[in-house]
Amino acid sequence: MGKRRSLYLSFLLGPGAFWLLMFFVVPSLLVVVYSFMERSSSGGVIWNVSLEAYAKLFTFDPESLFVNDFVVIFLRSFWWAVLTTVACLLIGYPLAFYIAQQKPTARMILLFMVMIPFWTNFLVRTYAWKFILNNNGLINTVLSSLGMQRIPLINTPTAVLIGLVYGSLPFMVLPLYASIEKFDYTLVEAGQDLGANYFRIFTRVFLPLTMPGVAAGCILVFIPAVGQYVVPTILGGGKVAMLGNILAQQFGAALNWPFGSAIAVVFMILLMAGVLIYFAVEREEEAV
Amino acid sequence: MTSTNTTRWLLTFMVSLALALTLTACGGGAAPADDSAAEEAADEAVEEAPGEEVAEENAEEEAADEAPAEEAAATDRCGDPSQLADNLNIFNWADYMDPDILTQFEEECGVPVTQDIYSSNEDLIAKLLAGNSGYDLVFPSDYAVQILISEGLLAELDKSNIPNIENIDPNLMGLYYDPDNMYSVPFQWGTTGLAYNVNEFPDGPPESWAAIFDPDQVCQHSGFVSVLDDERETIGAALLYLGYSYNDTSPEAHQEAEALLKAQKECLASYDSDNFDDTLMAEEIVLAHAWSGAVATARSENENVAYTIPQEGGAIWQDNMTIPVDAPNRYTAEVFINYILDPEIGAQLSNWTYYFTPNKASEPLLDEYYFDLLESGGMLVDDDIRSRLQWIERSEESIIFSDTWTAVKAQ
After folding, report:
1. Contacts of residue B396 in chain A, CB cutoff 8 Å?
2. DSSP-assigned letters across all residues of B227-264
3. Whether the complex's predicted ipTM surpasses the cut of 0.90
């Protein structure tokens, strides 16, 4: 009986486990293993165990307060991803709420409008921003024709953030919409009957019940934003590096795979830690 | 509330569609090798736009003089047509191939050519090292040929398929990186120097690399300056300004260069190797670390753009046609190399790229405009300039360039 059961289980779990193994565990392990190898001057790795890559990543100059360039890139990427997520939330929440209030047909049309940009390649849309933000681009042409000072936009962190928010917004709006749309409005009436004002209803009833959407949206926006490559390259002029850029450089032109792998490993650990902390806090809140 | 289910279904569908599309945007691209990251997708997008416009511009003028010659020579220029493949995949620098030549090759020999773009030798090397790139022909510079040979990534050429190799200037054959030209045939050569906008430099060309490396001077044009996104060129030029050689690998020299490049960074608009001709032309950039021919391309559209080799010197380089060892269509690639070395095609190529042709037989066929443009723009190389130019060379120690570059880019 026990044997048959375990056979049955392995039959059911087999394909999934195989998939996870091939497409998640093996590649991740490969990255971890590579990060402990020696670099080969022509790309790839030399199969000798070495801590060279981590040593480079964690070499600090005491004069600069134990902050090296890579720490700066990590912090910058995280900080920009946080800004992007917050901006997307501030724009996306009211938008999703507004869409959810419309009649079904209008809703469909509005959702459709959120989706349509996806039909164009992300790169093309990012290049379009370049034409808007250029020194002689749309915004500056308008400003100068109004007799105002041109403002440097392209190749600045501002441009990168605009591009990040623009690209991530739909990933915030759609999950938010999905959870707002499910909301049962009789709960608002209940709140009113119990004498709560709108602010209180929002913070105590509406927001907690739409929290799954907020969480899903934030994760969908934050994680890709931390590793962004295209936006800082195109709108930042390749000057303001984020994690994605430094990774691409190590695996590409710099041909330092162990170092690239080490960055990726540290990055994965930090992200996983972040997500685990999030779930731990979540569970505690639920328990209360 | 009956529509809720439909809405939700539709939403799920759309989200999955969106995710699928985003994934394709990031990972896909059109390269024949499909291990590509967004990086290549970015490069390809750059490639597509300029390529097509230019095709239209040049189409009429040049097709006219080509037509009669084409029919007469058609068969010899295509080698043995029965051995030609159905297509040819080439991997090239941006704006480095007259699209008309590709069209003509297809019409004449029946082989369509697909071109992808890379922006540094290091990108090319990384791509070929990964294996199965699917490319039949690539265009590495001198020192990169040396690296590719030492890694065993290039195929030996069958010279009997490339009779036009005789047309090449003997001075440009047998250079240090491939002494017997077993693997490489010169494609174009040029120099690396400074491009400037004459309106911003009314007193004449900048005399020193200080214009772009001295923080005070470069910041006078803050936000309107670009340097090449290339570890060997950009660090090399900084080393030159500091009084070292382009190829210096000593840690002290690199520390100084790193500090200089980091200080320069805040006043740069961008690190740019494939778009600076457009930005110079549009005056989005008024001072650029640049390759001679691309600057000439910008000058052909905007006469305010000019070029100079500063007092400290600059780089000279030669790009080459080489065949990856795992190229699927080696014979067709050799036929294409031979086609490029045809006197007329060689002239057509340089008339379009504005770089220098290694092809002696093509020189008399170059347009007068080509020489006028290069002479007035400061791109021609005389003995005085030649004496100040250095080749980029590779040694075991030159890995330090990658480290310095990582540090600069990471800041």
Report:
1. 41
2. E-S-HHHHHHHHHHHTTS-TT---HHHHHHHHHHHHHH
3. no
